[in-house]
Design brief:
Keywords: Lyase, NAD. One of its GO terms (biological process) is nucleotide-sugar metabolic process. It catalyses: dTDP-alpha-D-glucose = dTDP-4-dehydro-6-deoxy-alpha-D-glucose + H2O. Its EC number is 4.2.1.46. The structure is a single chain. This protein is of the alpha/beta class. The protein has a domain of about 230 residues: NAD(P)-binding Rossmann-like Domain (Rossmann fold). It is built from 11 helices and 12 strands. The strands form 3 sheets. The chain has a 7-stranded parallel sheet with strand order 3-2-1-4-5-6-10, sandwiched between helices. A 3-stranded mixed sheet has the order 7-9-11.
């Protein structure tokens, strides 16, 4: 599979994880070309890949995965060896306010891509999902495995679970060559500052309070985005068709501990912490068992949370102009 992949369609490549994946793939394989399909919604930032504009192996296409005629035509004409689907509405708070865009993009968009890939006989399809489809864990529960039942608790995670089930159905009904990946909480460069770590880093650097939900005792398993991208690549090239692979950082942390680590790295006081009303239905703990990916794909984590967080804080410090353009909305006034 690996040697035959030379043309990849990546959806959501201007987003946080997608942009890091595009960069990694182009850097590690000089014979590879990537088409990046992105609708450039608020979380799709052209600045993330602006320096690739002159790269002949990279092509940007603006489009919506929910636009079925457009998707069918793009995939039919692309000659792609693989389709890697990152594009998603992903912010839980926004899904609580209005679930409709999540159903449109995450469910309808996924089915459109599956139909287009099947019609065009694309050899490989990778669905990039989340550990949130498994629901929540108690403090002493074992970590999520690929066999953990899907019990999503937010409109966002429910829409991702629905998408995952459509991918499963495509494998069992149509025999499509599909693989699904599920990851724990990502962090790293280019992450939109509505998520916990980039929000807290950029707020701290600007001396703005850090809003901590509830008691701050929610537990998350943190994986650096580059380790996650390496996992997606391993699943793309080595994954068994129809299988699911979990990717985690083996790095569970209380949200409050992450908050204090950010303050320490930015040299800011704990007085910036502000407790706010907890999110409705807030999952208490996530933890991911990635033994299957380690044994079947030969994948392992390479970035410790301590080094990854320090590097992430340094990146946001060094890229103040990027942060300013995101926070002001200026990044939305251009095309990729």
């Amino acid at each position: 599979m690996s040697s035959s992949i030379k043309r990849i369609l990546v959806t959501g490549g201007c987003g946080f994880i997608g942009a890091n994946f595009v960069r990694m793939e182009l850097e590690q394989d000089p014979g590879l070309s990537i088409t990046n399909l992105d609708a450039l919604t608020y979380a799709g930032n052209p600045d993330n890949l602006a320096d690739l504009a002159a790269e002949p192996r990279y092509r940007f296409v603006k489009g919506d995965v929910a636009d079925r005629p457009f998707i069918m035509k793009l995939v039919a004409e692309g000659g792609f060896d693989a389709l890697v689907h990152f594009a998603a509405e992903s912010h839980v708070d926004r899904s609580i306010e209005d679930a409709t865009p999540f159903l449109r993009t995450n469910v309808i968009g996924t089915q459109n891509l599956l139909d287009a890939a099947r019609a065009a006989k694309v050899p490989r399809y990778v669905q990039v999902s989340t550990d949130e489809v498994y629901g929540t864990l108690g403090p002493d529960d074992p970590a999520f495995t690929e066999d953990t039942p899907l019990t999503p608790n937010s409109p966002y995670s429910a829409s991702k679970a629905g998408a995952d089930l459509l991918v499963r159905a495509a494998f069992h009904t149509h025999g499509m060559n599909v693989v699904t990946t599920r990851c724990s909480n990502n962090y790293g460069p280019y992450q939109f500052p509505e998520k916990l770590i980039p929000l807290f880093v950029t707020n701290a650097l600007a001396d703005i309070p850090l809003p901590v939900y509830g008691d701050g005792k929610q537990v998350r398993d943190w994986i650096h985005v580059l380790d996650h991208c390496r996992g997606v690549d391993a699943a793309l090239r080595k994954g068994i068709s129809g299988e699911v692979y979990n990717f985690g950082g083996r790095s569970e942390r209380y949200n409050m501990d992450v908050t204090k680590a950010v303050l320490q790295l930015t040299g800011k006081p704990d007085t910036l912490i502000r407790y706010v009303t907890d999110r409705p239905g807030h999952d208490r703990r996530y933890a991911v068992d990635c033994a299957k990916a380690e044994s079947e794909l030969g994948w392992t984590q390479t970035v410790t949370f301590e080094k990854g967080l320090a590097d992430t804080v340094a990146w946001y410090k060094a890229n103040a102009a990027w942060v300013d353009r995101v926070k002001s909305g200026a990044y939305r006034n251009q095309e990729a």
